[in-house]
Amino acid sequence: MKLKMALSILGCVIILTGCWDRIELNDVSIVTGLAVDEGENSKYRLTIEVVNASQFSKNQMGGEAAPALTFTLEGNTISELLHKMNIGITRRLIFSHTRVLYISEGIAKEGIIEFIDFLDRSGQFRNDFNIMITKGEKAEAFVKVTYPIQKVPSLKVHKQTQSFNREWGGDPGVRLTDFISALTSKGRNPVSATLVIKGDPKKGEKSENNMKTSVDTLVEMDGMAIFKDDRLIGYLTVDETRNYFWTQKLKTTSMSVPCSDDEKKPEDEKYMAVTVTETHNKLKVDFTNGKPVLKVKINGETRIEATQCLNDLTKIDTYKDFEEKINRYVAKDIQETIKKVQTEFGVDIFGFGDAFNRQHHKEYKKVENNWDEVFAQAEVEVDINLHLRRSGVRGKTFISEIPRE
Amino acid sequence: MKNILVEKLSLWQLFILIFIFEIGNAAVVSTGNDANQDAWIAIGLAMVFGMGLALMYYFMLSRLPGKNLFEIFQFCFGKWMGGLLTLLYILYFLYIASRVLRDFCELIVSFIFEETPIEFIAITMVIVIVYMLYLGLEVMGRTSEVFMPYFFSFIIIIGIAVFISGEMEFENLFPILGDGFKPVLKAVFPQLLTFPFGELIAFTMIIPYTSKFKKAKKITLLAVMASGIMLIYNAVLQITTLGVDMRARSNFPLLSSAREISLLEFIERVDLVVVFIVMFGIIIKVSVFFYGALKGLELISNRPYRMYVVPIGAIIAFISVKISDNFAEHIEEGLIVVPLFMHVPFQLLLPLMILPVLLWKTRKSKEGRK
């Protein structure tokens, strides 16, 4: 009996303990950013950004050091390069906390399917990192620009896009799965956010950059990139990006709406600042007389944050008047952006094709293969229905009370 | 027959066993892809047919209460023919058991333990299953009773969590039946009908041992329905979170969906919950097939099935590793070859052929009794 017990305990010890694939924490480095550039002698030039974890502990050991470390290699596939990184780096790399993937313009213009497949296939990458196209400088430079508050460059960019997305809607919020499903769908083309560096990239690499109140070098959001299939074909500005995002998943934003309808110079005009607090958007494609009509319908709530207009905000009529102005302003903005995409790029980045498919499956099947051309020709109707609900903690503005000569 | 124990399952245990058995690996590998966004309709349709199949199996068993499928073979065709049929079914059950085990091993190897040899996972799983079956059917029933609440609530919670994370897009379900019923039917037959619903054939070895055989019919049907609804829930969850394309391309869509969960920015990375669901589902599924095969051996050799548990377990572990060289081979065989050449004959054709003989024989015996 005792022998049996002993044997079974021994068996349990052998079977249940340990873990084949275990990796100790002090054997790994956490990768937070990947930057892909064109290689000089081979296809890609990959830079990784690894967090220097000891810099985050309260009692720093080994004095001041850079918050993150980058390392660059060249090769023909990303996955091989990632496994080869230990040429210069001590620890094994783990990728599940990757925050940003930077892709340089040049690579994006040639097509990025080839390494997107790796990211999709490998179970190591989660679906929560940003895909960023870098304008101007090499992608490599972007993982090196530090920032005083969020010292690791990619963490900074990630946080920044998150806040921007929630606060104003200037980041399209594209993740890997969104990108891929837009790629595979015939009724939609992918987009992704873009970044630029303001200032001298070389200065940004040093931690002295963090000692100043006005940093020398800064990574900024710069609208978004438009793809046709997997090739970059053009850009939208930050404002247009917001308009694009308005047709997608925008939650809050704010804007300056002119007080009067007549055209004036911007400096003469008076504005009201409007914050949109809630929106519900819907894309529809109506099919009448054999021609698709693209429809954007947005409902939502707004509030006045500040006003330079003299209208009395305690009157119902003023609210109605302002509401109309806001709706007209937003509708014009969105209409212009869609028109621009139609005429300049001719690719459906909004997902009208998918909406068409859902509503009129049979008709869509007929135009599926040249949907982008149909999209570029189609009429656009924008129906905005934003309600102005309140105007802060004041009614009448004091501006109208100031005695004037 | 010496030392052969009479084991009894309660109806509730039967319900749970069928429920977990059906969901087991079907919830995890992508099913019904032919139907695109209508996969859930296909599953619903397959469920209705599955209930029909369950009725047929029950009807066969009810002609000779207390006898399992293999005993019916012997009753109908005599010792030798019946024995041969039994042997075929034993091989079928063992093969499917190893195939199901391989599903799980593939999942573990491709998602979690990337460097662990697949043999190691297969063997550890089989050790658990062998131990459970060595203790008998009743232990299996009780084990599943214990784990059922977790199993059930985890699946439900995953759905709710994904929903709250805002990752679901119900638009993905449209257009409903955009291409008509054809793709749906294509998905139902033979794939969805046979896997998971037709696999109920293994329960013809268990249903006769329930404590109240008369009520087993209702319970079986209810269980099939419940699991069908659960699978529909699952399919909707997967389609809305991943989209049709992504789901079709995912090897394990439920796992991929669970990865999207992000509650309050601190409940994240909960994919391991899915692994628990699969693991338990697989243990029950392999055990049920395994048990069927063991019962067959018991009948043929006239020795208690416990004698065979360990050697056959070893064989299952071995086959599950050797069954295919790579993942593509495993999946392609599993989705194309196996349903047509193994599931359809063993789940549909053979039972249908046996049914008239059984009817004729039982009628004669009843008359004789009079």
Structural account:
The complex is a heterodimer of chains A (405) and B (370). By secondary structure, chain A is α/β, with parallel strands linked by helices. Chain A contains 13 helices and 13 strands. In chain A, strand 8 and strand 9 form a beta hairpin. The termini of chain A are far apart. Chain B is mainly alpha-helical. Chain B has one domain: Amino acid/polyamine transporter I (Up-down Bundle). A two-stranded antiparallel ribbon of chain B has the order 1-2. In chain B, helix 2 runs antiparallel to helix 7 and helix 3 crosses helix 11. Classes of the chains: A alpha/beta (405), B mainly alpha (370). Chains A and B meet through helix 7 and helix 11 of A and helix 4 of B.
The residue fraction in helices of chain B comes out at over 70%
Evaluate the radius of gyration of chain B: 21 Å
Low-confidence stretches of chain A: none
Question: So, CATH architecture of chain B?
Answer: Up-down Bundle
For the largest beta sheet of chain B, what order do the strands appear in spatially? 1-2
- Could you tell me the CATH topology label of chain B: Amino acid/polyamine transporter I
The interface involving the most residues is between: A-B, 21 and 24 residues
Calculate the mean pLDDT score of chain A and round it.
85
Q: Please, how many domains of chain A?
A: 2
In sequence order, what are the helices and strands of chain B, one letter per element? HHHHHHHHHEEHHH
By CATH, the superfamily of chain B comes out as Amino acid/polyamine transporter I
Biggest sheet layout of chain B: 2 strands, antiparallel
What portion of residues of chain A is helical? 25-40%
Label this structure with key terms.
heterodimer; A: 405 residues; alpha/beta; GMP Synthetase, Chain A, domain 3; 2 domains; four-stranded mixed sheet; 13 strands; B: 370 residues; mainly alpha; Amino acid/polyamine transporter I; two-stranded antiparallel sheet; 12 helices; 2 strands; globular
